[in-house]
Amino acid sequence: MTLPDTSGATRRRSRRNSRRFGAVLRFAVTTLTTFLGLLAVTFFIGRVIPIDPALAIVGDRAPAHVVERVREELGLNLPLWKQFFIYLRQVLTGDFGVSVLTTNPVMEDIKRVFPATLELASVGTLIGAFFGVPLGVLAAVRRGSLADQIVRVIGLIGYSVPVFWLALLSLLFFYARLHWVAYPGRIDIAYEYTFTSTTGLFLLDAIMQGEWEILWDLFRHIILPASLLGYFSLAYISRMTRSFMLNELAQEYVVAARAKGLSEARIIWFHALRNAAVPLVTVIALSYAGLLEGSVLTETIFSWPGIGLYITNSLQNADINAVLGGTLVIGAVFVTINLLSDLLYRTLDPRTRSR
C-alpha cells in the first residue's frame, strides 16, 4: 500500500502562509510609515507657520518674561527634533494638548464635533453614489449620445465650479428666495437644548428616539450642504463608473452573453456592473474620505458644527493645538479609509491577491 505524498501540499500551504504573512507585514509597515509621515508633516507645518502658540495663550500685551516662561512650559525653546518626539509621545497617548479657544482638551473637542462631519459626509456620499452610479452606467451604455454628453458636462461642472461659490449661490436660491431649506446650522434653536444625542449622529438618534418632527428639522438643515457635497462626489463617481463600464462592455463575456440571447438590461446590470463594482467600491470609499477631509469650506459657509468649522475657527484664533489635532485626525481618517479600500479591493478581486 502506497501512502499519499503530502509533501507537495505541505509546501504549497507553507508558501500561501508565507505570502499572507508577507502581505500583512507589508500592510502594517505601510500603515505605520504613512502615519509617521503624516504626523511629521503636520508637526513641522505647525512649527513653521508664523504663529507663536505662547502669544496665543498669554496675549500680545503680556510681558516678555511671561511669554518666555510659557514657551519653556510648552517646550518651544527645545530643538525641533526634541519637540517632535515629545509631540509623538503625547499623540500616541491620545493627548493633543488643550485648546486655547475652548479651554478643553483637543481630543474632547474632536470627539464632540467629528460626528457632525461624519454625518454630513455620509449623507453626501449616499447622494453621490445613488445618482452617480446610474448616470455613469447611462453614459457608458449611450456612449457618444446626448445623454452621455449631458452626464459628462455635469461631471465637468462638478470638477470646475468652486465649492464656496456654488454654496453661496445655493443658499441664496433655495434658502433666501424659495425657503425650501432651513437656515445654516445643524438643528433649529427650538430643539437644540431639548434634543438629547447619544451617538453624536443626530439623524440616527432622532430615528431611534422616534422624534419625527425633529428628524424633519434635521433633514431640512442637512439636505442642502449634503446635496452640495453629494454633487461633487457624483461628478467623480459618475466619471469613474462610465470608465469602468466602458471597459467591461468591451469584454468578450458581454459578446458571449448577447449571443446567448440575454436581455441588454441583464447584461448591463447583472454582469457588467457586477464586475465593475469591484473597483467602484474603492472609488466610493475614496470619495467618502475626500468629503470627510474636504468639507471645511462647506461647513464654514453653512455653519455646520463639524471638524472643518472647528479647524477654521481655531486657525482664526491662532489655536495651534486644535489646528494640528484636527488636521491630524482628518489625515488619519483619510489614510485609514484609503488603506482599507485597498485591502477591500484585494479581498473582492482574487486576481490581486497574489500581487
UniProtKB/TrEMBL annotation:
The cross-references to InterPro entries, in alphabetical order and at most eight, read: BPD_transp_1_N, MetI-like, MetI-like_sf
ABC transmembrane type-1 domain residues are 114-345
- Organism's domain of life? Bacteria
Among CDD domains, the record links this protein to: TM_PBP2
User: What is the membrane topology here?
Assistant: Multi-pass membrane protein
**Which sequence ranges are marked TM in the entry?**
21-45, 120-141, 153-176, 218-237, 268-289, 322-345
Q: Which SUPFAM superfamilies match?
A: MetI-like
List localization entries: Cell membrane
What are the alphabetically sorted keywords of the record?
A: Cell membrane, Membrane, Transmembrane, Transmembrane helix, Transport
The entry sums up its family as follows: Belongs to the binding-protein-dependent transport system permease family.
Which PANTHER family does the entry mention? D,D-DIPEPTIDE TRANSPORT SYSTEM PERMEASE PROTEIN DDPB-RELATED (PTHR43163:SF8), DIPEPTIDE TRANSPORT SYSTEM PERMEASE PROTEIN DPPB-RELATED (PTHR43163)
Q: What is this protein called?
A: ABC transporter permease
Q: Which organism is it from?
A: Rhizobium oryzicola
